[in-house]
From TrEMBL:
Record bears the keyword rRNA-binding: yes
GO biological processes: translation
Protein name: Large ribosomal subunit protein uL22
CDD domains xref list: Ribosomal_L22
InterPro entries in UniProt: Ribosomal_uL22, Ribosomal_uL22_bac/chlpt-type, Ribosomal_uL22_bac/org-type, Ribosomal_uL22_CS, Ribosomal_uL22_sf
Quaternary state and interactors: Part of the 50S ribosomal subunit.
Function: The globular domain of the protein is located near the polypeptide exit tunnel on the outside of the subunit, while an extended beta-hairpin is found that lines the wall of the exit tunnel in the center of the 70S ribosome. This protein binds specifically to 23S rRNA; its binding is stimulated by other ribosomal proteins, e.g., L4, L17, and L20. It is important during the early stages of 50S assembly. It makes multiple contacts with different domains of the 23S rRNA in the assembled 50S subunit and ribosome.
Domain of life: Bacteria
Recorded name of the encoding gene: rplV
Membrane spanning stretches: none
Family indicated by similarity: Belongs to the universal ribosomal protein uL22 family.
Molecular function per GO: rRNA binding; structural constituent of ribosome
């Protein structure tokens, strides 16, 4: 006996991909997420491919996963997909210490982030 099924959180024209524990601060990741928010999926993929940010490669993989979820799990048209939401959340923060002068220690924080990308199918305006 399994868990009872629950209603789908997204509408029928949406698909989502979540990446957890990306090794980058949420502030830096949000710069890349803002870059693709609201664009067509194909345009967003091209922008991420030629972006100079290190994390753009991981964001591109997440977007490709969301597109694949839309195509395979929800039978949506890939050419009509738009990145409707791309938001960033905090994950864990590793705390480290670095030796400083006079016997003191400096605190170093190594933040991680979560990324959620939602793609939506839109009808072309005729």
């Amino acid at each position: 006996m399994g868990k009872p099924s629950r209603d789908r959180a997204l509408s029928e024209t949406e698909a989502r991909a979540v990446v957890r524990r990306l090794k980058i601060s949420p502030q830096k990741l949000n710069l890349v997420a803002t870059m693709i928010r609201g664009k067509k999926a194909s345009t967003a993929l091209a922008d991420l491919q030629f972006s100079r940010k290190r994390i753009a490669k991981d964001v591109r993989k997440a977007l490709e996963s969301a597109i694949a979820n839309a195509e395979n799990n929800h039978d949506l048209d890939v050419d009509a997909l738009v990145v409707s939401e791309a938001y960033v959340g905090k994950a864990l923060v590793m705390k480290r210490f670095h030796a400083r002068g006079r016997g003191r220690a400096g605190r170093i924080e190594k933040p991680f982030s979560n990324l959620t990308i939602v793609v939506r199918e839109v009808e072309e305006a005729a």
